[in-house]
Amino acid sequence: MPLEFDPVTILDAVLAGILTGTVYALMATGLSLIFGVLDIIDVAQAGYVILAAYLSLVLEQSFHIDLFLGLLITIPLLFLLGIAVEVAFIRPIKRDRTQLSILVTFGIGLVIEGMLGVRFGTTERELDAWYVTQGVKVGNFYIAYVYIFAFILALALIAALFVLLYRTKFGRSVRALMQNRTAAQLIGINVERVSAITFAIGVALTAAGGMAYGATTPFNNNSWYDLITRLFAIIILGGLGSVQGALIGAIIMLVCSDVTAVVWSPIWSSAVFFFALVLLLLFRPQGLFGRLATRKQ
Amino acid sequence: MKRSLNPRLIKIAWPLLLLALAVAFPLIFTNPALVNIAVFALIFAGLATSWNIFSGYTGYTALGHTVFFGFGAYTIALISINQHLQGGFGIFLLVPVAGVVAALFAIPVGWVALRTRGHAFVVITLIFVFIFQLLAYNLRGITLGSAGLFLPGPGFGIDWFLLPYYYIGLAILVVALAVSWYIRSSRYGLWLLAIRDDEDRAEGLGVRTGISKLIAFVISAFFVGMVGAMYAYFLGVVYPPYVFDPALSITIVLMAFLGGIGTLSGPIVGAIILESAQQYFNIYAPTGFYQIFLGALFLIVMLLLPQGIVRSLARLWRAWRVRRGAGGSPVAPERQPVVVEKG
Q1: How large is the ipTM?
Q2: Which of B40, B54, B127, B215 has the largest CB neighbor count within 10 A?
Q3: What residues of chain B score a pLDDT lower than 50?
């Protein structure tokens, strides 16, 4: 297979990787946050992303609301959904959270997939707007405006999340819970409330992620399987429960895929990253920024 | 009240009776649609039982067992195509070969995956499914990619062509069950259960945890590979998304949980229930309803019956007997996993 090394093309690919990587980072930080605080793996995270993409589709097609403006509706909607899911399905899991949470959230993802299938069928959809079709030429590539807008939005939301985590009282409770759940409870943090809100924030972040995903990738109700693997790969690379790790992991993954796609072949785009991930795990099972899984006290 | 039957005898008689029923089933119910469902149920029961050998005993939830399903399926397809084999019973001889190939691949996969623990292990096994699905799509020289590989037709008599698959499926299931039972009652099984309960303490007490986990992983992969090979021959075609299927991986886990994880009969009960439901929905329900049903079932089982149907029913049954004063221990203690230490 001919390998192509054109520096401009590679730089373009790196740029595209950073732009999309930030959007993935937005979805992955939610996942990592939920993992860190609630000690569960939320398989349904990608299901919410697809759900949000469909919500944006409905708002755009039936109500002619701009995709970015529609976020003002979808973000609160998904926040409420997150609260409801946490209270109804996550909170009742008292023991063996690792195993049971994966299966419970997988069940939620399946219900979402099935409902979307009943309502929209399995035809592939794509979100449409002027900034999806128009773009600017950078180097040899043509980058649609939506990538740039989504990048700015994702950066803004991630920044807001960091401010929330590191500059507010609520953020301090969240970080306390990530460090030690029992101790946090002992010093008077309302663990259940903080858990529910954190979960809902993680789900609400997918509203923006879903819109950006839907505007850049054709999707149907099955797309969440592929997406959740990418998100998992990102948070494993970054280290489970590390918000910074999710951010950096996402950018590494997308840059790696995009560069592979132009240098080698698009069909192998995710292969190189996955193999790199496996190699990394051989030497650093906890990922880049994670703590080693140790015995529960 | 006459209660002279030796409990040990009952313990042996029940499985034999069930086995006899299973052997007689396709001879009594000759309706091909019914036998077809039974073959699928055996395939899934075999998968869930094999999965249980590793995950049920060690407590490591593996979501990637379709990797070995896929290896088994591709092995049987590639050998029979490259050797220009005609259909017929001969191809069934390749089923154990496919199992061995899957087990060989399980050594490096398990070695990498088992370096992680807990959540990371679950996720990394799922990622392996996608890696191999990607390879199966893209290594067109070997797998023909999305065009798929076609196996030779069975060439059995048209009115009984389901029977060989049924009995091979049953044989794999019975052997997997026997191995599962043997491991459980062995010293090795005790090690695995110790890993499940507290891995660090087990290691401290001298259990060689690393190699024990890997061996269970490989045994489990061996059986999954055989089931995969049988499945490929049954369907007659191998496509990457059908055999390296993440949803199938997770369905196996649900089957084991539905019936009761770590029990012998649980995975079979779960597989029979789930497989019948799947067939029903495939035929009678429009797209999407099966996922809703499956998802709702997941939620109900996980939240209300986390110990599975078999254990929950057993507990209800004991409670009922105690209420009737029909004997048994009045306290009806929770049944602990039975382990017999040897040597």
Answers
A1: 0.77
A2: B54
A3: 1, 328-343
Distance between CA atoms of B290 and B283, rounded to whole angstroms? 10
Closest approach of B326 to chain A, Cα-based (Å): 33
What's the DSSP call for residue B146? Answer: G
Tokens encoding A180: 């030690």
Token code pair at residue B213: 């986990």
Decide if A45 contacts A23 (C-beta within 8 A): no
Residues of chain B in contact with residue A113, where contact means CB-CB under 8 angstroms, are 288, 291, 295
How close is the nearest chain A Cα to the Cα of B65, in Å?
15
pLDDT on residue A294? 47
**Rounded Cα gap, residues A195 and A82, in angstroms:** 11
Q: What is the mean pLDDT of chain A?
A: 84
Question: Per the CB < 8 Å rule, is B294 touching A233?
Answer: no
Phi, psi (rounded to 5 degrees) for A18: -70, -40
A interface mutation test: which of B54, B137, B257, B291 has the most A CBs within 10 A? Answer: B291
What pLDDT score does A230 carry?
Answer: 85
Partners of residue A221 in chain B, C-beta under 8 Å: 288
* Per-domain boundaries in chain A: 7-283
Min distance B134 CA to chain A CA atoms (Å): 7
For residue B221, the model assigns a pLDDT of 93
Strand-pairing partners, residue A272, are: none
- What is the mean pLDDT of the segment spanning A148-171? 89
CB A152 within 8 Å of CB A208: no
Q: What is the largest CA-CA distance in chain B?
A: 71
- Structural domain boundaries in chain B: 30-246
Mutation for testing the B interface, residue in A99, A227, A237, A270 having most B CBs under 10 Å: A99
Cβ distance of B287 and A102 shorter than 8 Å: no
pTM of the model: 0.81
- pLDDT value at position A23? 87
The one-letter amino acid code at A107 reads G
Whole-angstrom Cα distance, residue A213 to residue A127? 9
- Mapped onto helix, strand or coil, the DSSP state of residue B198 is coil
To the nearest 10 degrees (0 to 180), the angle between helices A243-263 and A7-38 is: 150
CA B23/CA A125 separation, integer angstroms: 49
- Indicate the DSSP class of residue B56: I
What tens digit of pLDDT does each residue of A177-196 get? 888 888 888 888 888 899 99
Between CA B239 and CA B303, with CA A227 as vertex, the angle to 5 degrees is 95
- Identify the pLDDT of residue B227: 93
Classify residue B96 as exposed, middle or buried by CB count within 10 Å of its CB (0-12, 13-18, 19+): middle
Distance from CA of A138 to the nearest CA of B (A): 30
Which residues contact residue B334 at a Cβ distance below 8 angstroms, ignoring those fewer than 6 apart? B315
Q: Which residues of B touch A86 (CB under 8 A)?
A: none
B246-259 vs B118-138: helix axis angle to the nearest 10? 140
For residues A122, A124, A127 and A128, what is the CA-based torsion angle, rounded to 10 degrees?
-130
Q: Rounded to a whole number, what is the distance in Å from the CA of A28 to chain B's nearest CA?
A: 14
CB atoms within 10 A of CB A191: 17
Please tell me which residue, A198 or A280, carries the higher pLDDT value.
A198
Which architecture, in CATH terms, is A7-283?
Orthogonal Bundle (1.10)
**Alpha-carbon gap, residue A178 to A36, rounded angstroms:** 5
Please classify residue A23 by burial: count the beta carbons closer than 10 Å to its beta carbon, then call 0-12 exposed, 13-18 middle and 19+ buried.
buried
Structural contact between residues B48 and B260, judged by C-beta atoms closer than 8 angstroms:
no
Residues in B touching A98 (Cβ below 8 Å): 61, 118-119, 122
